[in-house]
Amino acid sequence: MHEYSIVQSLVDSVMAAVPRDASVHRIEVRIGELSGVDPELLATAYDVFRAGTICERAAMRIDRVPARWVCPNCKSEIPSGTALRCRACDKPAHLESGDEIILQRIELEVA
Amino acid sequence: MCQDCGCGDENIIPLPVQQRLLARNDNVAAHNREHFQERAIFSVNLMGSPGSGKTAVLEATAGALHGGHRLAAFAGDLATDNDAARLSKAGIRSKAITTGQACHLDAEMVHHALHDFDLAGVDYFFIENVGNLVCPAVYDLGQTVNVVALSVTEGEDKPIKYPTMFAKADLVLLTKVDLLRHLPDVRVAAIVEALGRVMPDPQLIPISTVGGRDGIAAWTEWLSQRREASISPQLAGKNA
Question: Is A106 at the interface with chain B, CB within 8 A?
């Protein structure tokens, strides 16, 4: 289960992005369907790991990004779960989105 | 003031970040890639389930890659250096990376292991990842290509159960095909069909590392062609 190491990177990224004494209210991450990261496991790992870190009181919102395959030639979408090849152009599909693991936004609380 | 979510809370300040969480790993992987490229080394991240035959593939590769090519390998495992010992015995300059409880190799582990490893004269470098079809797919190690070993006993639908791993593969080695005669319900065509639903340009070579060693020649030919295509012409003659 690599979600714990992803959470370590997440907390490190938050620490690098905000002042040391900042109060982090909420964070938002984008997780692609083909990123290899399981959103439920990530949420569990985050809840365990955030204690004692800058994210201790920060809720996490996870935006799931579905896999989106397109033909590199005609740009038509090729549905997931079907043969990943454009029938019209006979080209292998390109993964347009769905493999991202991104810290998207941080909300800071000010007194 | 928080303006974009509409909560109107004046005490909340939003901070757009757009930070890739694996940026650090990817930077180290890029550094590893430079190490390999500047020495014209073709590197392979070999992944697959425990017992899919990764080590046996490399043993067979050592005996089949002709032309005086030098092979080296890291063997990743939770515990023991058994695989590295097998590879050394097969003539591959090898080193074990024991990960403890970690279910995958990352770029930092590979970089650390490269520090005191002799890469002189090496043409092909194999990184045998920890046996696992999930976590290793997430981490770039600095390899030139990803190869997945999938044995015929794992089931026809394995690719669609683990789409991330197969979507990232440049090649799938269908291993242990010598066992197919004992497995009347396993159809290679069904595995190829499943692969096409997760791997945009499915490349599959059926191989066996016992008996007549079916497919090993096709595998080494694939390696040789990909190596030729990947290394720059001026470095190609480094051993000449």
Answer: yes
